[in-house]
Amino acid sequence: MSLIRVKSLIKTFTDGEKETRVLKGIDFKVEQGEFIAIMGRSGAGKSTFMYQISLLDEPTEGEIWLFDADTHNMSVDETTDFRLNELGYVFQDYALLPDLTAEENVALPLMMKGDSKRGALAEARVALMRVGLGHRTENLPSQLSGGEQQRVSIARALAHKPRILFADEPTANLDNESSRSIMELFKEVHRGGQTIIMVTHEEEYSKLADRIVKLDDGRIISDEKDK
Amino acid sequence: MPNFVRIGFFLALRQIRRASKWTTILIIFVMTLTFLNLVVVSGILVGLIQGAIDANKVYYTSDIIISKLDKKDYIEQSPKVISTVRSFPEVAGISPRYIEGGRLEAGYKARVKDTDTNEAAASLTGIDPIAEDNVTNLSKFIIEGEYLKPGDYDQVLVGAYLLKQYFPVESPGFSTLADVKIGDKIRVTVGDLNREVTVKGIVKTKVDEISMRVFFNDWQLRQLIKRDDFNVDEISIRLKPGVDPVFVRDGLIRSGIGEYARVQTFEDAQPKFIKDMKTTFALLGNMISSIGLVVASITIFIVIFINAITRRKFIGIMKGIGISGKAIETSYIFQSTFYAIIGSAIGLAVLYGFLQPYITAHPINFPFSDGILVAPLDETLARILLLVVTTIIAGYIPARMIVRKNTLDSILGRN
Q1: Under a CB-based contact definition with an 8 Å cutoff, are residues B333 and B399 in contact?
Q2: Contact A187, A208 (CB under 8 A)
Q3: At what angle do helices B272-310 and B325-350 cross, to 10 degrees?
Q4: Cβ contact A111–B18 (<8 Å)
Q5: CB–CB of B327/A112 below 8 Å?
Q6: Secondary structure (H, E, C), chain B
Q7: Residue B162 backbone dihedrals phi, psi, to 5 degrees
Q8: Were B155 and a residue from A125, B2, B161, B200 both cysteine, which residue would form a disulfide, CB within 3.0 to 4.6 Å?
């Protein structure tokens, strides 16, 4: 069973009378345990593509099946619930909640899933230790460096054990050293069997993935697996 | 507890704890002012009339007033009535009064022409100065001169509203005495009889009825009006502290006094226009409070809307990572409730800890009453409940508006 099946995916943005078709009929599948890098030049539609398959946005046309569930007829609440239980996200700008400490940021989805506050915080501390931030659990995001914030973001995305981890240009705002360390972390997580779909425009980091999908002008122009 | 409530509380607590202190203080300050506006404005308006009611009781009727029946010239069998009243153990003091209409004239010795009259109509009241002072503290309201002594002969207290310098009103059918000072002689005329008396003191209270009287020693007025049967026109009764006037009134009526006189508590004896004004002012106060409530709800709406719109990205992120819209909305409801409750609590402390005791000790000086602040606790709590409910609604609506926006648009800051 494929984790994700996409058929004839189209996404059109409308601005007044002007329509811009960003994705122009994409077919795509993801299997369990893959580490996929989605690449392409700026404006190729790679982030838009990821937003559709990660249920952060709704396609204009086409079908998206996640774990054999047709996402087309899901309500907003069902989609939110699906994201909570099955998917993890790492954003380019870390997307941490500024009022919550590192451990609270990580614990929040766990609490939403029903864990007690104490249990969720304990799990969050374990997740932060895994990403090397066991000593920064009670810091607010504003007290952390960019690399540290991205590690918290990864810990949050992984703490609730998602079936797919989505990452949108996770190193775009980081210096080289932090970027390399974040990518090492992704590789390590992937070695543990985690399915990862990452949007990046950096060749160097895409090589860590075992499948590279290239987009141009809203279409997949190459889909290569690492042999 | 539903999970979304738990998460909402968790988020609200973090947001409040880590929000800018000054913003929080400002919001709570607005809520406190709103609460005070809600309670104090109507409280003062009602207190203005309550002050008039209290003044009528303090200066005139005391706890119970016995007056003559309609179509009677006085309270018949007054000595018997007074004796019955005195037999009630709840009675702390009584003041029987003789009342007769008459005319006052001043400056008559220096008058050159017959048309240069200096006259005023007055209610002549005979009192026992000690008994009256015991019941209404009349001596405290002497603004010039001195209070009457029981043996004072041909000396009177004149109400300030009978004197032009205190009540410079010119209207048809109403006149006041001009240029009358303490020690001046004035002429009092009752029917065909007249008597020259000396002004010993000037009385001014918040009750017009008292400020338009001339007070004599009772024995002297009795002589003047030839009331040899000791029948009086009204009796004010002061009760011992804590005694219910209704209970004593009913007891007095049962004792047979009702045959000779009308027995009323101070509330029964309130003029109808005061009762009507109290209702009107309460209505007016509620209308003003309602406007205050609308202003408060708009304020909270704006505060929460700005708060939610500036946090739109984070709301999007929360939805993105699977936090339910209900939990996020609940967090804003908790925040609004927090502001309303803290603002109201501070308002309560200011109201009952400072404003009400202060205004009670230093009443607002209105012409016809000592205005107090009327704020019964049960009514205040009802207004707090109203404020909290309004605030919750005003906080929920903008939160819902922002939460309903597209998740990705919120995260990316797209419109």
Answers
A1: yes
A2: yes
A3: 140
A4: no
A5: yes
A6: CCHHHHHHHHHHHHHHHHCCHHHHHHHHHHHHHHHHHHHHHHHHHHHHHHHHHHHHHHHHHECEEEEECCCCCCCCCHHHHHHHHHCCCCEEEEEEEEEEEEEEEECCCCCCCCCCCCEEEEEEEEECHHHHHHHHCHHHHEEEECCCCCCCCCEEEEEHHHECCCCCCCECCECCECCCCCCCEEEEEECCEEEEEEEEEEECCCCHHHHCEEEEEHHHHHHHHCCCCCCCCEEEEEECCCCCHHHHHHHHHHCCHHHCEEEEECCCCCCHHHHHHHHHHHHHHHHHHHHHHHHHHHHHHHHHHHHHHHCHHHHHHHHHCCCCHHHHHHHHHHHHHHHHHHHHHHHHHHHHHHHHHHHHHCCEEECCEEECCCCCHHHHHHHHHHHHHHHHHHHHHHHHHHHCCCHHHHHHCCC
A7: -95, -5
A8: B200
Q: How far apart are CA B143 and CA A172, in angstroms?
A: 86
Kindly state the tokens that stand for A54: 């990660």
Q: What residues of B are in contact with residue A83 (Cβ under 8 Å)?
A: 320-322
Query: Long-range contacts made by residues B360-365, C-beta under 8 angstroms, separation at least 24?
Result: B363/B51, B364/B44, B364/B47, B364/B48, B364/B51
pLDDT of B114 reads: 67
pLDDT > 80? residue B117? no
Chain B CB contacts of A164 under 8 Å are none
> Which tokens go with B411?
């995260």
Of all residues in chain B, the one with the smallest CA distance to A56 is B408
B9 touches chain A (CB under 8 A): no
First to last CA, chain B: 35
Strands A164-168 and A87-90: parallel
Query: What burial letters (b/e) apply to B226-265, b meaning 16+ CB within 10 Å?
Result: ebeeebbbbbbbbbeeebebeebbeebeeeebeebbbbbb
Phi, psi (5° rounding) for residue B287?
-65, -45
Sorted by sequence, the CB contacts under 8 Å of residue B95 that are 6+ apart come out as: B62, B127, B128, B131, B132, B134, B135, B136, B235, B236
| Residue whose entry in the numeric block shows the structure tokens 């004004």 | B277
Please tell us whether the domain made up of A4-101+145-225 is placed in CATH 3.40.50.410: no
Interface A-B, measured as beta-carbon pairs within 8 A, has a size of 71
Per the model's pLDDT, the better-predicted residue between B289 and B256 turns out to be B256
| Cβ-defined contact of A97 to B408 (cutoff 8 Å) | no
Residue-level length of chain A: 227
Decide if A91 and B411 are in contact by the 8 Å CB cutoff.
Answer: yes
Tell me if ipTM is over 0.85.
yes
- pLDDT, position B115: 67
In this structure, how many other beta carbons lie within 10 angstroms of the beta carbon of residue A197?
26
pLDDT for the residue B65: 93
Q: Which residue of B has its CA nearest to A88?
A: B321
Q: What is the pTM of this model?
A: 0.75
Nearest to A112 among B14, B320, B327 (CB): B327
The neighbouring-strand residues paired with B387 are: none
Is B321–A104 a contact, with Cβ atoms under 8 angstroms apart?
no
